[in-house]
Recover the amino acids of this structure.
């Protein structure tokens, strides 16, 4: 009988010894899972940014409401700020009167023959 020599196989796909799957399949699946995790983190991040900084974000609205209340409190207890508010209200009244006068004058201009 003649002796046969067996050589290891070469040229095939590298396989995972535990699963029998090609190593490339595991690497591709791992990369897909990592990308999916990254996308979920990015979505959560964007949602948080929208809540914090977005125009309709609940956090921004809550802070703005508290800030308005604080400013109203400070202005109510500050004589100088109260004087400025009174001045602005007076000017607003005068401007309304001025608007009416201008409107009356314009009407008179168009009614004249």
């Amino acid at each position: 009988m003649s002796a046969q020599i067996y050589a290891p196989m070469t040229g095939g796909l590298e396989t995972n010894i535990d699963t029998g799957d090609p190593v490339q399949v595991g690497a591709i699946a791992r990369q897909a899972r990592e990308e999916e995790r990254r996308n979920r983190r990015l979505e959560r991040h964007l949602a948080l940014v929208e809540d914090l900084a977005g125009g309709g974000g609940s956090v921004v609205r809550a802070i703005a409401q508290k800030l308005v209340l604080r400013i109203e409190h400070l202005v109510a207890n500050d004589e100088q700020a109260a004087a400025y508010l009174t001045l602005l209200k007076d000017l607003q009244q005068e401007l309304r009167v001025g608007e009416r006068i201008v409107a009356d004058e314009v009407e008179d201009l168009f009614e004249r023959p």
